[in-house]
Amino acid sequence: MAKSIVTQPRSDKKSEHNDPISSSIRLREPRQSGMAKHFVTTDPGIDLTENRFFGRFLKKSLRNRKFQFFLILPNQIIFWIVIATGIFGVSDPGRNFGPAITWYLWFALVFVLMAVIGRAWCAMCPFGGFGEWIQRRTLFQRTQKSLGLGKKLPESWAGHGLLISSIVFVILTFLEEFFNIAGPGVPIATSIMVLSIVAFATLSFLLFERRTFCRYLCPLSSVIATAGAMGSVAGFRTKDRNVCLSCKTKDCMRGGEDGFGCPWYTWPGSADSNAFCGLCSECYKSCPSDNIGLFVQKPLTSVIAPTRRRFDIGISVAILFGLVLYQQYNALGWYGSVDDWLNSQINFPHYPNPIAYLGGIALAVGAIWLGVLGIQKLGGLRTIVGQKTSWFVAFAYAIIPITGMDYFARQLPKLLKHVVRVPSAVVSPLGINLGIYKVHLLTDPRIVTVQVGVMGLGTALTLWSTYRIAKTDIQLNASRPKLALAGAMGFALVICVAASVLYMPMHAAS
Ligand code: SF4
Ligand code: SF4
Ligand code: SF4
User: Fold this and answer.
1) Where do the structural domains in the chain lie, given as residue ranges?
2) CA–CA separation, 167 vs 160, rounded Å?
3) Ligand 1 center to residue 242 CA distance, Å?
4) Which tens digit of pLDDT belongs to each residue from 487-510?
5) pTM across the whole model
6) N or C: which end of the chain has fewer CB within 10 A?
7) Does the beta carbon of 279 sit less than 6 angstroms from any atom of ligand 3?
């Protein structure tokens, strides 16, 4: 039996990255002796690189250093066209390619990728891709020297994990609402927003090492890590941990001849969710023992099964749920007068009132926290054995599906009413009028039906996740397990129904 195995720290507050071998990875005793599969409940099982139909092709593609470059390149080209057309194109946002593709198609598409796959967008993202090309001084080659200062994010920041990303997302959304960027408003506003993110990302890549930006700072990272937990791609992981035990080089983390060390500070031997694998395939290229595979898992596995639930993910889910709820009730008829009144009290120029915005998010987080406290009292819940995090975090994981689906449902009016404007905007500079500018794919009542259907699916998935999480943890840690289970299921149902019902009076508001 091996004496020890390498794993990431269990605590969220411990060193998040620093030197990937010496400080971010700690030694601890294995939970099972002689096990080749080390994820136990989270072992995804199916390695796509071993698939008998396309495994060989996949292996060859993943070994190719141009693999990720060709994933990023099309999006990189589109994003620079978005920026250019937003600045130089026509002033009507619906007829301008930049805002049209960004807000009528891209945002909804990213949510589908998250829900179905996980961090698929991150594998092809132009923000991270652009910064990384500059940092590595190459488009795809394995270089040894990087450009920039290569600093580590201070531990006092890194210890907060995804919480920083969530805060950046909240700030960005406020600015987007304030300037009516995603409305969409004037096309140049979309260009400025995209350029600002590119500039923020590039500066971060030049200041900090690896993908510090993606792991901690990117406004989309917390959304993708949380909603992406529903996805079926577990990520790149080690095939046999026993091989890793005798591995002296740890090239997957340090970098080897053919690949960089993991840019996301993830050791593929200890990942128990898909939250921090950016699917870049560097570990696949660098492992000298061919001990890395690309694994798929059942949907919701990263919601239900992580052996180490993280506080930063839990609090991010609660914040993101509060934010999307705010975006729902701010579309209701009465909200405008409340916002106006609040603005008149603090002399704030116009919607959105910052107190209502931040207060609304805080209220939702507080309500979830109070609800979980009630379940704890009701069921006599003790500290969760084997988890250092609280019941609040466990419940927050359970509501990941309704939160993700809520964001997707909120995008549906733009997608289903206006997506045909994208091909119109593509061909209109050539003087071609497709005559479909005003075509809606669905009428408003039908869009509401689809939204409620999406939320219904989110509700079913949330109830299933709540049941699975509660069943495992409550049975072990409650003095009145039946009451606790009923309380958790009831509270989850209340949250889901409240968010779903809101779509009816919203009347498919964009
Ligand atoms: S974390 Fe953000 S910047 Fe990084 S790859 Fe994902 S979406 Fe792109
Ligand atoms: S380089 Fe390969 S064998 Fe070594 S620790 Fe990483 S995955 Fe395991
Ligand atoms: S190096 Fe491997 S574990 Fe790290 S982000 Fe890339 S694919 Fe995922």
Assistant:
1) 41-301, 311-506
2) 11
3) 32
4) 999 999 999 999 999 999 999 998
5) 0.91
6) N
7) yes
